[in-house]
Specification:
This protein is α/β, with parallel strands linked by helices and 284 residues long. Helices cover 35% and strands 17% of the residues. The strands form 2 sheets. It has a 7-stranded mixed sheet, sandwiched between helices. A two-stranded antiparallel ribbon has the order 1-2. The radius of gyration is 22 Å and the shape is globular.
Length: 284
């Protein structure tokens, strides 16, 4: 009866199809394998569970700014090594590696148009030394804030950072005060500032400009806090509640105004800016 049975033959190497390793991506939220192209079209959000993968600064600019309406500022500013930090890892070498990948610094700043409204925009990039805030990051964000002040346009900052850049010591910590001072001037002038919190937003960035917005929008599941959960647990000797320091937890405790899916972020931001615009125009 061999006519009705299909003999099992092992595949020869010539018959096997080579599938590129990046065709499918495993979701960190639900563990499902996602077709890479489908994930890209879905703005790096899992179509099954809604897990938000991290995206780079250029992707946020493309997502938020109307086509062809972004003018980058201060592209020439580059980090130095003011403390000659060479004891652990050569800081200047790490900068060089990141720059070789096409990343000038841990933040992109510029002006652009969101749904027809002029804005000043700063977007942090976690790829550049974990999005750490050094003297150049603080300077670029401060200058971006001053542009918003001079042109009387809203400021929007997309945050993603591991905190202050340890290799620059006190120079890095000074950026917390410098950026906060510019935001105080914006507040005094009645010009809106919207802070968007993405995964992760921690350390000195959280302790300064990230949490000083007139409105705070956060992506789902983003880690937002000063010290990490493990450090806090070891300090207070208590187990932390489920979801501690995640955006949904902060929303319940009044630290975040809205948790917004990335696919709806531009539309939500446009609504917020338009609503706030009425107040700031009346203030003028």
């Amino acid at each position: 009866m061999a006519w009705f049975r299909k003999e099992k033959k092992p595949l020869r190497s010539a018959e096997r199809r080579d599938v590129p390793t990046d065709v499918f991506v495993k979701c960190e939220g639900c563990g499902e394998a996602i077709y890479r192209e489908k994930l890209t079209h879905n703005l790096e959000v899992c179509p099954d569970c809604g897990f938000h993968f991290r995206i780079d600064a250029e992707a946020y600019v493309e997502l938020l700014i109307d086509d062809g309406n972004f003018n980058e500022l201060d592209m020439h500013l580059r980090a130095a090594d003011p403390l000659r930090f060479t004891d652990l890892k050569a800081y200047i070498d790490r900068i060089g590696i990141s720059e070789a990948k096409g990343q000038g610094e841990a933040v992109i700043t510029g002006t652009g148009v969101i749904d027809g409204m002029q804005v000043a925009l700063a977007v942090m990039d976690f790829r550049f030394i974990a999005g750490s805030m050094g003297s150049v990051v603080g300077e670029k964000i401060s200058r971006c804030g001053r542009v918003a002040l001079e042109r009387r346009i809203p400021l929007v900052i997309v945050n993603a950072s591991g905190g202050a850049r340890m290799q620059e010591g006190i120079y890095s910590l000074m950026q917390m005060a410098k950026t906060s001072a510019v935001l105080a001037d914006l507040h005094e002038a009645g010009i809106p500032y919207v802070s968007i919190l993405t995964d992760p937003t921690t350390g000195g960035v959280t302790a300064s400009y990230a949490m000083l917005g007139d409105v705070h929008l956060a992506e789902p599941g983003a880690l937002i806090g000063f010290a990490g959960p493990r450090v806090i647990e070891e300090t207070i000797k208590q187990e932390l509640p489920d979801g501690f320091q995640r955006s949904e937890f902060l929303l319940r405790h009044g630290m975040v105004d809205r948790v917004v899916d990335r696919r709806e972020l531009k539309a939500e931001l446009a609504i917020v800016l338009r609503h706030m615009g009425n107040a700031w125009e009346n203030h003028s």
